[in-house]
Amino acid sequence: MANDSYVAGVDVGTTKICTLIAQTAPNGQLDILGLGLHPARGLKAGVIVDHAEAVASISESVDQAEQMAELPIAGAYVGVTGSHIRSRNVTGRVRVGPSGEITAADIEKVVQSARDNVSLAPEREIIHALVRDFAIDGQSGVRRPLGMHGARLDADVHVVTGIAGATLNVRDAVEETGVKVQKQVLEPVATSLAVLSEDESNLGVAVIDIGGGTTDLAVFVDGAIAHSATILIAGNHITQDIAKLLRISYAQAEHVKKRFGAAFGDMVTEEESVVVNEIGTSDQTTVPRRLIAEIIEARLEEIFLLAAENLQRSNIYGTLAGGVVLTGGSCQLPGTTEMASQMMADLPVRIGTARSVGRLASRVASPIFATGVGLAMHAAQEGAYAGPPPTPARPAWLDMISEWWGQNVKPRISQYFPRR
Ligand SMILES: Nc1ncnc2c1ncn2[C@@H]1O[C@H](COP(=O)(O)OP(=O)(O)OP(=O)(O)O)[C@@H](O)[C@H]1O
Ligand SMILES: [Mg+2]
Predict the structure, then answer these.
(1) CA distance 373 to 190
(2) 234 lines ligand 1 (CB under 6 A)
(3) DSSP string of 266-326?
(4) Do domains 86-162 and 198-353 have the same CATH topology?
(5) What pLDDT, in 10s, does the model give residues 400-417?
(6) Is the pLDDT of residue 395 over 80?
(7) Is 180 in the pocket of ligand 1 (CB under 6 A)?
(8) Domain boundaries, the chain
(9) Among the atoms of ligand 1, which is closest to the Cα of residue 215?
(10) pLDDT exceeds 60 at position 420
(11) Which of the listed CATH numbers 3.30.420.40, 3.40.50.300, 3.40.50.1390, 1.10.3720.10 matches domain 198-353?
């Protein structure tokens, strides 16, 4: 396969590293060529806490995907999240040049002017400056101002910032595996690309990705990003609660959660029970399944309460006519959509999995793959190919020298230094 036809995304999650190698099919869908899924080590709430462990797990995931695709990847789009992420909407303004026709340079300048309006602490950097809307001479709602006429160009821009060291740590860990980080993309931005329909993002929709270490939010209104945020409570906290309250190991709590969990206590009858091993002993004991569901209910309620408060504070709660799309591993708990709707003003809620996937769609049908697919889609949209650069053709003169060496010098060397 040509090096310039396939793309790659690496989702460096708190619980798993997902690598996707894909190509765009003629019908515009993304065909999956390779998938690598390996448990994440050395990460906490989206940030690297043990470099060597993180590198080892990223490397395993990348190798798996390369083996399945039978293709090497030299570059990839990589996700970024964590408590250090902040976002806000700012505006930029420029005067259009004397011709009155808006050029690419004017557009670049207006985005730069919005970026300049963000005051950054020395340790922070801008990860994204995503244009939400342009206005020409005060007339807003312009999507593509290139070539249009006016005297003044304004841009409304969603700026995402993060601590430079934290994003650099992820970049370094990926690059140590031999894969160049072509772009770091905010995880909810990538996820939204994979799970949202155009209609939803035009109507106004919130994507809530409940992963292992973080719950990421992204809101789209009028087809453009309006808000993004990260909440530091997610599925791992639910598992920890179960482990602590039932006095069982983390691994067993994870199993019990996935096998017997539910979002509401009253989804489970009082008679049902689950056998568990008490920690530190070989004793088995039974616990009411309803208790497990009640522990989950309390944490999930907290997650949705924090999400609802965050959206309310940002003044966009009323704009979500398209409802809420849940994704990430933790939304697979039965009853999660009902809980989300109850906690968020009865908005319609659905589970989001990657759309527009052709070949091997069933392999990425779980909400845990939405971010990885979104990263690969982002790379495909921007034509950022993952293959190694083609090796330059061998110059003809090198072949001539090699032939001359073989015919004239090599026989003499063998004559003087015969092989034993
Ligand atoms: N079937 C399931 N039922 C309930 N919870 C599940 C299920 N499958 C996965 N989870 C939970 O989902 C979480 C992992 O989700 P996901 O793979 O989206 O996270 P991540 O991308 O690794 O982490 P993050 O995005 O927070 O950095 C874990 O807490 C896991 O226990
Ligand atoms: Mg994730």
Answers:
(1) 8
(2) yes
(3) GGS-TT-EEEEEPTTS--EEEEEHHHHHHHHHHHHHHHHHHHHHHHHHTT-GGG-TT-EEE
(4) no
(5) 777 777 777 777 776 766
(6) no
(7) no
(8) 86-162, 198-353
(9) 26
(10) no
(11) 3.30.420.40
Rounded to an integer, the average pLDDT of 274-302 is 93
For residue 287, report the distance from its CA to the centre of ligand 2, in Å: 31
Kindly tell me if the per-residue pLDDT of 35 is higher than 70: yes
230 CB less than 6 Å from ligand 1? no
Q: What mean pLDDT do residues 58-65 have?
A: 98
Q: Give the Å distance between the CA of 401 and the centre of ligand 1.
A: 59
Which 3 state secondary structure label does DSSP give 22? strand
Q: H or E element: which one contains 194? A: helix 187-195
Which atom, in ligand 1's list, is nearest to the CA of 258? 3
Q: Are 248 and 279 a contacting pair, CB within 8 Å?
A: yes
Query: Is there an atom of ligand 1 within 6 Å of 329 CB?
Result: yes
Average pLDDT of every residue of the chain? 93
The average pLDDT across 178-202 equals: 95
Cβ(247) – ligand 1 distance below 6 Å = no
pTM: 0.90
Does ligand 1 come within 6 angstroms of the Cβ of 213? yes
Per-residue confidence (pLDDT) for residue 1, from 0 to 100:
67
- 342: amino acid identity, one letter: Q
For the domain made up of 86-162, give the CATH fold. Answer: Dna Ligase; domain 1 (3.30.1490)
Give the model confidence (pLDDT) of 359-371 as tens digits: 899 999 999 999 9
